[in-house]
Specification:
alpha+beta; L-fuculose-1-phosphate Aldolase; seven-stranded antiparallel beta sheet; 9 helices; about 15% strand; globular; disordered C terminus
């Protein structure tokens, strides 16, 4: 099971590169085996082109390395806070993607201007408060996780990502593949919102009715988007409407 998770986490990290969401050794993705209580994460500072499944670091939920000879990503404590707080999260992805990071640096949430956004977020993409000097000085990466938790509701499906003020985006999902998918979507939403405001600085968010319709048709109890989960999900995976 851990070997398979290592392979999935490696592939997720490489997908961040393929999608242009990371530069050099920036960013990281991790996955968790809830059954074993173990997290697999990218090692710190290793070029993506050099990564192999055996380089992925396995830790427990306290951050102790249980398998692997490399140091885990420096953002591991942030990932661990999310895994410990939200049992529905099975994967986390962190990038410094350009447009989402720009919104984070501006300390502004991303408004929902249209249905693409509404398909994924039931509300704005939130931004965290700034960390205090004390939080920065003491367990900075853990405090980053804590500030994310304080800015979130318990519904991590309705909010599958967040902007950490002055830092960048974090995204998550039920597995690491979905976490990376949501990171890609978050960057796209940030880019579209930027252009929307460039075209019309007075642009207003989509109506609640349209926002709810698009989100709930995909994620609500009576959702009808895509194929039934127990039959064929291929069209859904292709993003077809």
């Amino acid at each position: 099971m851990l070997q398979r998770l290592r392979e999935q986490v490696l592939e997720a990290n490489l997908e961040l590169v393929r999608r242009g969401l990371v530069l050099y050794t920036f960013g990281n993705a991790s996955g968790i085996s809830r059954q074993e209580g173990l997290v697999v994460i990218k090692p710190s500072g290793v070029p993506y082109k050099d990564l192999r499944p055996e380089h992925m670091v396995v830790t427990d939920l306290e951050g102790k390395t249980v398998d692997g000879h490399l140091r885990p990503s420096s953002d591991l404590p942030t990932h661990l806070v999310l895994y410990n707080k939200f049992p529905a999260i099975g994967g986390v992805a962190h990038t410094h993607s350009e447009y989402a990071t720009a919104w984070a640096q501006a300390r502004k949430p991303i408004p929902c201007f249209g249905t693409t956004h509404a398909d994924y977020f039931h509300g704005d993409v939130p931004v965290t408060p700034e960390l205090t000097d004390s939080e920065i000085a003491n367990e900075y990466e853990k405090q980053t996780g804590d500030v994310i938790v304080r800015a979130l509701s318990t519904d991590t499906l309705a909010t599958p990502g967040i902007l950490v003020a002055n830092h960048g985006p974090f995204a998550w999902g039920p597995d690491v593949r979905t976490a990376v998918h949501n990171a890609v979507i978050l960057e796209s939403l940030a880019r579209m919102a930027y252009f929307t405001l460039g075209i019309n600085a007075a642009a207003q968010p989509v109506s609640s009715a349209l926002h709810d319709k698009h989100y709930l048709r995909k994620h609500g109890k009576n959702a009808y988007y895509g194929q039934a989960r127990d039959t064929d999900t291929r069209d859904k995976d292709k993003g077809q409407e």
